[in-house]
Amino acid sequence: QVQLVESGGGLVQPGGSLRLSCAVSGITFSSYAMSWYRQAPGKERELVASIASSGGSRNYADSVKGRFTISRDNSKNTVYLQMNSLKPEDTAVYYCNTYSWGKNYWGQGTQVTVSS
Description:
Order of helices and strands: EEEEEEEEEEE
Largest sheet: 7 strands, mixed
Strand content: over 45%
Number of helices: 0
Structural class: mainly beta
Radius of gyration: 13 Å
Helix content: under 10%
Distance between the termini: 40 Å
């Protein structure tokens, strides 16, 4: 069974930082690309960042480029999202994602709220 378990969300002031983690089980983690998505109330779920299985290729949404960093530790079966210089517009539920054998797999989501 594929499971993605997220942690690290919370309340932070504008300009602050958070590091999200996603622990993955049920797949050969090092063989799969991973992604972070987010969804704010009333908005579609959007792709925030993605990383190749090896970690050698990374992509970011324009809205977070230069502020967020996606990384992975294949020895720990974990993908991370380091979020710096957070803005109120970053407020959303953040989801970890992978795709395997015709299915999308998602974490439970972790709430990130950026507010003073």
